[in-house]
Amino acid sequence: MATRVIPPRILKNIRYNTATATTTATTKPLNYAHPSIISSSVVPQPSLYDKANQKPPSTTVNPPLLKFDDAEKLFAPVSTSKLLRSTAVIHATAMGPMVDFGMWIMKSKLVQKGVLKDLVMASIKKTFYENFCAGEDAADAGRSIRWLNDVGLRGMLVYGVEDAHDNEGCDRNLKGFIHTVDVSTSLPYNSVSFVIVKITAICPMKLLERMSDLLRWQQKDPSLILPWKQDSLPIFAESSPLYHTQKRPNPLTPEEESDLELANQRLLELCQKCVQANIPLLVDAEHTTVQPAIDYFTYSSAIIHNKDENPIVFGTIQTYLKDAKERLLLTAKAAEKMRVPMGYKLVRGAYMSLESKLAQSLGYASPIHNTIHATHKCFNDCSSFMLHKIANGPGNVVLATHNVESGKLAAAKAHELGIGKVNHKLEFAQLYGMSEGLSFGLSNAGFQVSKYMPFGPVDMVIPYLLRRAEENRGLLAASGFDRQLMRKELGRRLKAAVF
């Protein structure tokens, strides 16, 4: 297997301790940064912030190496043609009417048949698709990952399917996820940080809804026995919304229990594949209608597969939910008690419109924080909690954020806690095609950074693009950080070319 070349800017910050380094495959942590540079027996990068100086912890929110003011340096790896396309797409998706028009086209009959379909699909492919997706097949995805690897970033590979509604679709999707793991192992070592799975793609949606209803009712009435339920971590907190389930649900039918066993087998096969490949599996979060069942699948699998200090199964916490922090604390405490190392991806969240409409239709307050500032605080609080946790024990965290201030705060906290930078316990992440300035800024400072990279045929990935367009319209419209940086760099390159 090819060995990843660590960028010089990272190497210069690492003092390699040859006396204690261990390089054998049997002792390397899961998907470690590099077997010849970092090992489980080495204290994480003491040379980055030498404790021998006995200086008090830094209180700055912007460590010296985390800089975003040099657009030329940030976008140095990006070709002008790619930068032009990205700038155009990001500006377009920041305009509400443009997003509405694009979504109307992708949902309309224009993309269903005939010459117009070919034209529309070609237009989508050359714009939104190529900006936000890794490619149509494994070969395309591999080229995208290699490019990221060359510029010091990593990739989270996502087989770009959405929901499945029957076992046939679930089986077909499982093959796609298994193939994604195979693709990952064929790429340069450590260039793929995670394989992503959507439980809604390998378990029928109706079954997930039924399981979630039963889990919610059991939370209301602990006397309810669920014979199919395996050991899990806490799924709910006292503040968790339970209004989705208005009345006591019927038990799963024999057919539903059979479908559940098939779903368990699919997830088990995928987990075992990831264990063999030494690549973590990250479970995406969904809307609250089915999230309890998704958490159940995630945590029951984590109990089985997460051993020693190396999580193989990661869950996702959406911090725009009011109960997010409480659930994280409960789950982390239970995992620690059971000696199950847990990995979490922290995100602000999606499905805002759907959640608010559903709660309102049932006569309840939205489960989402009332203000964006409360969401920011929840994300930052959860990040701080996880950084403290991994600094003092097992576990991993992926901080998936497009917010520059959250990135600065987390980097400063990691610095303060002495976690180090190139550290297998901490990963920053952004969507492919978004927040490039933040990604490169964090990478230039030496942190591990991944891009969330869906791949698959254009027509298959359109549901993903539609969902992202709806989710991110507010984000792109509200934040001009990346657009400003890209305009600045394009202006500089134009002047350099002319003069």
UniProtKB/TrEMBL annotation:
GO terms for cellular component: mitochondrion. It comes from the Eukaryota. Keywords: FAD, Flavoprotein, Oxidoreductase, Proline metabolism. Coiled coil: none annotated. It catalyses: L-proline + a quinone = (S)-1-pyrroline-5-carboxylate + a quinol + H(+). The keyword Cell membrane does not apply. Residues 189-474 form the Proline dehydrogenase domain. Its EC number is 1.5.5.2. One of its GO terms (biological process) is L-proline catabolic process to L-glutamate. GO terms for molecular function: FAD binding; proline dehydrogenase activity. SUPFAM superfamilies: FAD-linked oxidoreductase. InterPro entries: FAD-linked_oxidoreductase-like (IPR029041), Proline_DH_dom (IPR002872), Proline_oxidase (IPR015659). Signal peptide: none annotated. Its cofactor is FAD. PANTHER family: PROLINE DEHYDROGENASE 1, MITOCHONDRIAL, PROLINE OXIDASE. Converts proline to delta-1-pyrroline-5-carboxylate. Belongs to the proline oxidase family. This is Proline dehydrogenase.
